[in-house]
Amino acid sequence: MAPSDTLTTEQQQIRELAREFAVNEIRPFTAEWDTRREFDSAVFRKLAELGFFGMTIPEEYGGLGLEFGTYLLALEELAWGDGSVALSVAIQNGPAAHFILAVGTDAQRREWLPRLASGDVLLAFALSEEQAGSDLAAIQTRAERTDRGWRIHGHKKWVTNGARAGVTVVFARTGEASRHGGISAFLVDPGAPGYRAGQRERTLGLRASETVAVELDGVEVTEDRLLGRPGAGFYYALRALDVGRVGIATQAVGIAQAAFDHAREYARGREQFGQTIASFEGIQFKLADMALRIASGRALAHEAARWVHREHTNAWDPDAGNGTSRGPSSLTTAAAIAKLAASEAAMWVTTNAVQIFGGYGYMRDYPVEKLMRDAKGTEIYEGTSEVLRLVIAREALRSGFAG
Questions:
Q1: Residue spans per domain, the chain
Q2: Residue 281 bears catalytic tag
């Protein structure tokens, strides 16, 4: 948690509101949601009422218009409450809001941003496919021209909120110009004929989050549902991932902080050999390393947030690079570093929290095993750790980047 004396009054209030919400509206239900594999729908309504779905959306569209770093303060607290809740909030405020704001038409912004901010509509991203996970250029979903717009055919995998969403951004191949070109993005109504969400996936962690496959069997969209420039979808997807990775880094920090808090309190109370285990040097070293990794992940996430602010407009312009690759983007590198460091920190911290709890940590009756399962997801989605290392190494080899 960032020191209070470094925050503005507004930032302190927003962080405190998020912590209060996590304590009262999330923490009491996390174990139940994990077992049932679903949220109570009321949590989305309450999040919307407090403005958490519109934190990064400008006030002119009904949002709070917060700086990205301020949003991260709230997101960390929500993730401290439950990672699945934070994931839905992160999608709404990160790639969803920034994508539409950056490349949408005026009409699209007026139509969708107020609805996203109010929580009236949740947005889903349908990007990955069975053979196109890390290799996004391999997507096979196709959009064909019609008299009224486009007709989309394909199958998408691992779509968060894919059945619950009110609008889904679907990436589809619209041409054969190149492997990276010829991909476009569309705003698709999940209620449209031919849009079918499959059964919920049975995930290791973040079990309350809705993850489904989506089949698109001739789904028709009008021309005004094309999002951004035709053929620039691959570039837009990479930009959305940059923004999304900063949010996932913060989600990971919140999960890790929760595990640390549980482990610290347990160590203070658990007695062995006539003393609390917190008095043992081995446990103290674990707690010290936990605190170090959490602080590092948090600092890197907030550094990346500054790049989100700096590069908000230019980073979404394909002409800023060559239109088929990321180009020398500091946001890309900062986001990759933050997400890699924070997610691996979360996995390390939660694993050691289980170890501090000992046999109890392995039991479902205690909270740390769930946090360890949740942390693992942050090392995989929005870019695996292996892919992120390639991104960072590419920049280091090209520019000598070292920090």
A1: 4-122, 124-227, 233-399
A2: no
How many CB atoms within 10 Å of residue 149? 16
Instruction: Look up the CATH superfamily of 124-227.
Output: Butyryl-CoA Dehydrogenase, subunit A, domain 2 (2.40.110.10)
Contact partners, residue 21, CB within 8 Å, separation at least 6? 46, 47, 50, 52, 77, 78, 81
Which pair of structure tokens corresponds to residue 247?
């949010």
- Taking CA atoms, 205 is separated from 259, 298, 354, 370, 374, in Å, by 14, 22, 15, 7, 4
Q: Give per-residue pLDDT as tens, 172-197.
A: 999 866 667 799 999 999 999 999 99
Mean pLDDT taken over the chain: 92
pLDDT for position 296:
98
Q: Look at domain 4-122 and name its CATH class.
A: mainly alpha
CA dist 231 and 245 (Å) reads: 23
Which entry of 25, 210, 382, 395 is annotated as an active-site residue? 382
Residue 160: both structure tokens together: 């968060």
Helix (H) or strand (E) holding 185: strand 183-188
Count Cβ neighbours within 10 Å for each residue of 197-212 and write b for 16 or more, e otherwise.
bbebbebebbbbbbbb
| Tokens 């496919």 sit on residue | 129
